[in-house]
Protein: Sulfate transporter 12
Amino acid sequence: MGSSRDIAIGPVAVVSLLLGTLLRAEIDPNTSPDEYLRLAFTATFFAGITEAALGFFRLGFLIDFLSHAAVVGFMGGAAITIALQQLKGFLGIKKFTKKTDIISVLESVFKAAHHGWNWQTILIGASFLTFLLTSKIIGKKSKKLFWVPAIAPLISVIVSTFFVYITRADKQGVQIVKHLDQGINPSSFHLIYFTGDNLAKGIRIGVVAGMVALTEAVAIGRTFAAMKDYQIDGNKEMVALGMMNVVGSMSSCYVATGSFSRSAVNFMAGCQTAVSNIIMSIVVLLTLLFLTPLFKYTPNAILAAIIINAVIPLIDIQAAILIFKVDKLDFIACIGAFFGVIFVSVEIGLLIAVSISFAKILLQVTRPRTAVLGNIPRTSVYRNIQQYPEATMVPGVLTIRVDSAIYFSNSNYVRERIQRWLHEEEEKVKAASLPRIQFLIIEMSRKLNFTPNFYIYIPS
Structure:
């Protein structure tokens, strides 16, 4: 139903972490696994409803309130949080905190250092994590070998599973996956909450998870569409994602969205249409029907290593540095989201990101930029004298440009700013014994629909 040709759909790390964190805050999966499962399906259902509704009513602009800078910070914080959560399987720790903040996780890790770490588990995890990182480097150095990092996780699972099976390392304390149900999951429509206290919880969790999933999917779709020079319909994408999650909630699935890593492999493999998603679905179906018994001896450490390897690229330091150079307010949003996720929780980090992004929009609307214009020599063009040092002001004339539309919320600020410019310029020309300012021209073309292009004011 979507318009993107390259996006690959499935579970992704950030949405999985967000959904799991929000669900655990309401229901303990160990004491109430059935209720936990029902709430997950309910959240997925309402995540789909949210996504489809945004697309149907053409409200996709709402996700633009989550700026790129905020997403960079949120993703980086989520990546660190996800990686820290994997230390349980990577180190072989049995008792681990349910909290996601960095202080609680590190405290739990170091408390288990003397008696809770398993050296065989650490050896398996570290060895295959090194292999995965090396394969990623090989794939980056040669485009022809793009398939190496794509197939490396599968090789890791097969080799580690075989190794544990022949050595019976599970008898030495290496934790394994154990039993996996074989076959297609049953219908879950009857498990969705439509009444009761858990309905409100499911709606709240679903809306948050749906918005994050939507933001990620649309961003990925736009990225690959730009690379192939075609356009995607954002509202159509939202309806497609929403319908997918609604149907998924009825067939024992949780929130899915576009995966950047899978989409990148899809793109590099030369996919041209969304049929690639159908092929992936068939492979998953065959795995569920015939291959699940083979995963019994898969060590948890290899799964942790695969997840850590997958989330490392989400920490985009270069993007953060660029944001700092371009816009300090955007950088504050980026850092706020980052620290909110790692020190408090995923939902708080997301809230900080949205709040700072929204505050920046309000600030730009209520405090628009103004600039003094000067004439570019030998042309009829006027430009900002701070950006174009060669531009010269016309004697006796002050030309000011307002770089925003004028609303009731910023009209007083614009007036005060213009008066300040005028006062400062009059002081300068007086000190330099230059002709006094006789004309004030305010360039407001296309800023106001009900005024002419220029205001001309002659001081008394």
Q: What stands out?
A: The chain has two domains: 8-361, 370-458. Strands lie at 8-10, 257-259, 370-375, 382-384, 397-402, 439-443, 454-457.
